[in-house]
C-alpha cells in the first residue's frame, strides 16, 4: 500500500502510481476559480485514464483470484505421504 501524496489516502496495487498522479492532477485542476476549457479537458482526460487503470486493475484482480483458486484446488487434490 502507498499513501497518496495529495490526500493521504492509502492506495495500492499495480495502478497506485497512476491513480495517485491522476488524483493530483484532478485536485490541482479543480482548485480555485471556474476551470477553463483547457483545464476541463485535462480533468476529462485524467478521469478517462483513471477509469482505464481501474478496469485494468479489476482484470488483474480477477486473474489473481482465478490463480489462487486453481492453486488451492491443486493443493487439495495433491496427496503427499504423511511424515511420522
Features:
2 helices; 84 residues; mainly alpha; two-stranded antiparallel sheet; 67% helix; 2 strands
Structure description:
The protein is mostly helical. The protein is built from two helices and two strands, in the order ββαα. It has one domain. The protein has a two-stranded antiparallel sheet with strand order 1-2. Strand 1 and strand 2 (10-11) form a beta hairpin. Helix 1 (16-30) runs antiparallel to helix 2 (37-77). It starts with a strand and ends in a 7-residue tail after the last helix.
Tell me the helix content.
55-70%
N→C terminal distance: 42 Å
Rg? 21 Å
List the total number of helices.
2
Strand tally: 2
Q: What's the arrangement of strands in the largest beta sheet?
A: 1-2
Instruction: Summarize model confidence as the mean pLDDT.
Output: 77
Main β-sheet, in a few words?
A: 2 strands, antiparallel
Summed up, the domain count is 1
Query: In sequence order, what are the helices and strands, one letter per element?
Result: EEHH
Which shape, going by the Cα principal axes? Answer: elongated
Produce a short descriptive summary.
The chain is mainly alpha-helical and 84 residues long. It has helices at 16-30, 37-77; strands spanning 2-3, 10-11. It has a two-stranded antiparallel sheet.
Amino acid at each position: 500500500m502507498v499513501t497518496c501524496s495529495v490526500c493521504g489516502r492509502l492506495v495500492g496495487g499495480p495502478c497506485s502510481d497512476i491513480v495517485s498522479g491522476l488524483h493530483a492532477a484532478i485536485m490541482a485542476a479543480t482548485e480555485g476559480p471556474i476551470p477553463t476549457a483547457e483545464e476541463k479537458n485535462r480533468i476529462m482526460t485524467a478521469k478517462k485514464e483513471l477509469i482505464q487503470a481501474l478496469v485494468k486493475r479489476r482484470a488483474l484482480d480477477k486473474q489473481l483470484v482465478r490463480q489462487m483458486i486453481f492453486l488451492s484446488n491443486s493443493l487439495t487434490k495433491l496427496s503427499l505421504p504423511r511424515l511420522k
